[in-house]
User: Which sequence fits this backbone?
């Protein structure tokens, strides 16, 4: 019995060594997603002056709390605008610009702006990636007659897939936001 | 690569012709039915022998376990298989690796068990009351994986298994060495496999390659009444996740479903790209047994295991870095005292466990935690002349500290769970032919870490999952009735296991409204909620021996799983399955056998319409063929086997495959194996 106790003691020692607390457990990694896109802003300008913006803002990122801001878009009928897209990450509590990061990986990304419900809206991409394929951070927008509808903004991620004339279904969606739009 | 396969096949056909019989043992004999065991045993369980495991070498543990009646799989594509018992999986099925609870990230439905099946001499599926011995949380059942111990003075034995699978051009090899002396024995094992993209009957599945390397060893020392045994294992794997499953929102998912097949065309490659998983599991176990003069035994089992999981998403922000890494370390200790007085065997035991989990990467899924578990248990078994009684009681306590970091603010919370569980079982020998076992088990399971804290997108299913940190433990009331019949000359064996399981506070994912609005679109949302659930089913088998050469076996596995709170069927439950296995061992050539397997999986009609993107797929029937032969060359024994799965290259999808939205199941797979015993 004494011998058993002795051996048992030995194993408890081994166990104690094996289980020595890992300091990392109590010092957890930040839960913010450093590569997330939480905020999308469309800015419409005429002659260098911003005349209209629309923002989708979900600062805690995917899941969690609901978006804090989801604007409708209002544009004048029969007009031409310059539309730029800005992306931000707010998950860590501070605002990080993601526009440049995605633009740098432009050969894997492309924006699409798709009007629905008879919305008289059309966008032409003005910028190109390093391969000369369309990107969509900078666009020329033309509106037609007075109409209401939705304008779907899609950012497609397509590593190794991107071509010059892709349909909006190629790749997978990094962004899919449907702005309620009024052309007045 | 293909040439080698043809050469291998030719060699196989050649050797078949000149095979020489050596043993009278049947080569094909899949699952042992415990029907004609003596009345000393109330276990509702099935055993898979080494022979059946080795005839499937190169497959994963989950795939091999499907040979056991009542064990199904939850699949993620063609590379990840999780065992399902009585409709339950993940945290509700416990796997014991040579006496130690396998502790990894087993809560995840796309996390396969980290065990090399080639380690096992036998695998037991414990469905009934005996499960209490291993842990109260095993509401679905326990799988015991046990390695062999070389016998005393056994000369050095070397055994080599090699195999080639046509479907994904997989190569695999396993080497096993064992030796025993008067007081000591050891064995060493290592296996390797590498497969490329798998193919359905019509197209390749991009990025479904896999690479695995495992090693294990066991050492045993015996002197007088003392036995000490060491067991160590390393499991390392790299698995590709089907590229076509990479979708980031509902629109993408609906586009693939509408297309009826993957949107891209793929080719064959061994290359594994993102998305993929890399997992390493290390385990060390020390077991000691002392036998006292009065024939009582003390047993102490200590174990330490470390599981490293790295998940690489399709879109790499930092190439080479995993988006999610989880590192979990677990120390366990189990002490048991066994003694027998007259016809009563008593086991008293204590169990302790410490675990810590650390995550890193940029995709938060579950928080860091540290947990301690303690348990005390007592089991008593009475053997009477024609009956057997077993009862057990167990107390479990779990203390858990959770650590989070939101915006650089570290917070910590504590959760504790404790419960009493127990079981009682009675086996009665009704006649020389009939045995009847009835059992009642009270079991409980504390909520898993994911059920408490998950909040985000479930990759591959385009759904948002929300945990609930206030979840309580589940309590299960489980009833088993097992009837065994064996006729006078044992040529007919019938086994029927009926179960019904009432679970209070069953933790289940239920749809919630409205859908979650994100920058990637709106997602259907599911939250972990508690409800009362009722599982009932039947696992039955009939084995008929027509002559010493012919054997036919029929298997049926039925399950009804119902949420009694919401009065709806529970989703993602295995459909009814039926199997017919015919085995023929060639006359005068007992070492050559043929097998024909027919599997029918019914359509799962028990689901809630509108809760899934795609209703359960139609029923399907598959055929499999096996040919085994062996021969002796000098001191070497060679065993060749040919297995064809999905002989007719049937196009089908299975409801239990989480990738059924994206692609069909694997097509025909011709597997050639060679086993050499030196």
Assistant:
């Amino acid at each position: 019995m004494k011998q058993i106790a002795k051996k048992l003691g030995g194993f408890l020692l081994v166990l104690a060594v094996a289980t020595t607390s890992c300091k990392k457990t109590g010092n957890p990694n930040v839960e913010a997603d450093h590569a997330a896109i939480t905020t999308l802003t469309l800015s419409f300008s005429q002659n260098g002056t911003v005349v209209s913006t629309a923002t989708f803002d979900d600062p805690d990122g995917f899941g969690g709390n609901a978006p804090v801001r989801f604007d409708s878009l209002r544009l004048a009928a029969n007009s031409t605008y310059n539309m730029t897209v800005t992306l931000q990450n707010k998950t860590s509590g501070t605002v990080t610009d993601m526009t440049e990061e995605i633009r740098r990986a432009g050969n894997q990304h492309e924006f699409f702006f798709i009007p629905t419900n008879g919305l008289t809206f059309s966008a032409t991409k003005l910028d190109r990636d390093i391969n000369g394929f369309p990107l969509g951070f900078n666009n020329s927008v033309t509106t037609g007659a007075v109409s209401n509808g939705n304008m779907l903004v899609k950012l497609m991620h397509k590593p190794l897939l991107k071509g010059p004339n892709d349909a909006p279904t190629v790749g997978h969606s990094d962004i899919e936001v449907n702005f309620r739009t009024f052309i007045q | 690569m293909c040439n080698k396969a043809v050469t291998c096949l030719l060699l196989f056909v050649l050797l078949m012709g000149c095979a020489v019989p050596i043993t009278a043992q049947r080569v094909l004999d899949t699952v042992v039915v415990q029907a004609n065991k003596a009345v000393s045993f109330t276990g509702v369980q099935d055993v898979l022998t080494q022979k059946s495991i080795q005839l499937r070498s190169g497959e994963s543990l989950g795939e091999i376990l499907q040979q056991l009646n009542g064990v199904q799989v939850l699949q993620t594509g063609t590379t990840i298989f999780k065992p399902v018992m009585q409709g339950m999986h993940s945290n509700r099925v416990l796997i014991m690796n040579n006496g130690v609870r396998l502790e990894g990230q087993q809560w995840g439905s796309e996390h396969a068990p980290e065990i090399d099946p080639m380690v096992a001499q036998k695998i037991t599926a414990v469905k009934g009351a005996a499960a209490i011995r291993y842990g109260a949380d095993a509401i679905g059942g326990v799988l015991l994986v046990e390695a062999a111990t070389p016998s005393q003075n056994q000369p050095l034995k070397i055994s080599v298994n090699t195999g080639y699978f046509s479907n994904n051009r997989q190569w695999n090899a396993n080497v096993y060495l064992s030796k025993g002396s008067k007081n000591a024995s050891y064995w060493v094992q290592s296996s390797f496999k590498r497969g490329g993209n798998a193919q359905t009957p019509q197209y390749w599945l991009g990025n479904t390659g896999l690479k695995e390397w495992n090693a294990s060893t066991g050492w045993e020392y015996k002197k007088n009444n003392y036995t000490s045994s060491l067991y160590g294992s390393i499991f390392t794997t790299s698995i590709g996740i089907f590229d076509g499953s990479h979708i980031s929102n509902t629109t993408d998912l609906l586009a693939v479903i509408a297309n009826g097949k993957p949107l891209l065309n793929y080719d064959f490659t061994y290359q594994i790209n993102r998305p993929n998983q890399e997992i390493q599991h290390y385990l060390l176990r020390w077991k000691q047994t002392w036998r006292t003069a009065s024939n009582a035994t003390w047993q102490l089992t200590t174990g330490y295991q470390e599981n490293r999981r790295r998940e690489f998403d399709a879109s790499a922000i930092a190439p080479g870095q995993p988006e999610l890494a989880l590192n979990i370390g677990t120390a366990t200790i189990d002490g048991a005292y066994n003694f027998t007085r007259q016809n009563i065997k008593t086991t008293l035991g204590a169990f302790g466990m410490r675990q810590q989990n650390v995550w890193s990467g940029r995709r938060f899924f579950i928080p860091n935690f540290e947990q301690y578990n303690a348990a005390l248990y007592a089991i008593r078994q009475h053997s009477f002349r024609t009956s057997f009684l077993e009862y057990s009681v167990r107390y479990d306590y779990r203390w858990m500290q959770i650590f989070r970091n939101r915006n650089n603010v570290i917070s910590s919370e504590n959760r504790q769970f404790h419960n009493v569980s127990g079981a009682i079982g009675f086996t009665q020998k009704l006649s020389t032919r009939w045995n009847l076992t009835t059992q009642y088990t009270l079991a409980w399971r504390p909520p898993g870490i994911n059920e408490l804290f998950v909040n985000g997108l479930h990759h591959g299913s385009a759904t948002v999952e929300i945990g609930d940190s206030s979840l309580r433990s589940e309590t299960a009331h489980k009833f088993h009735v097992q009837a065994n019949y064996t006729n006078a000359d044992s040529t007919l064996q019938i086994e029927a296991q009926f179960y019904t399981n009432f679970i209070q506070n069953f933790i289940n994912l239920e749809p919630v409204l409205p859908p979650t609005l994100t920058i990637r679109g709106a997602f259907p949302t599911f939250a972990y909620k508690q409800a009362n659930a009722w599982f009932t089913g039947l696992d039955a088998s009939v084995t008929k021996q027509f002559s010493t050469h012919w054997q036919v076996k029929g298997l049926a596995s039925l399950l009804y799983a119902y949420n009694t709170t919401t009065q709806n069927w529970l989703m993602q439950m295995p459909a009814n399955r039926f199997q017919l296995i015919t085995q023929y061992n060639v006359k005068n050539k007992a070492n050559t056998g043929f097998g024909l397997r027919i599997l029918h999986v019914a359509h799962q009609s028990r689901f809630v319409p509108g809760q899934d993107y795609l209703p359960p797929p139609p029923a399907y029937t598959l055929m499999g063929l096996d040919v085994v032969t062996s021969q002796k060359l000098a001191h070497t024994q060679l065993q060749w086997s040919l297995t064809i799965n999905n002989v007719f290259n049937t196009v089908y999808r299975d409801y239990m495959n989480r990738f059924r939205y994206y692609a069909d199941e694997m097509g025909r797979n011709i597997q050639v194996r060679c086993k050499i015993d030196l």
In short: Chain A has two helices and eleven strands. The first strand of chain A starts at residue 39 and ends at 46. The longest helix of chain A spans residues 2-18. The CA atoms of residues 59 and 90 of chain A lie 5 Å apart.
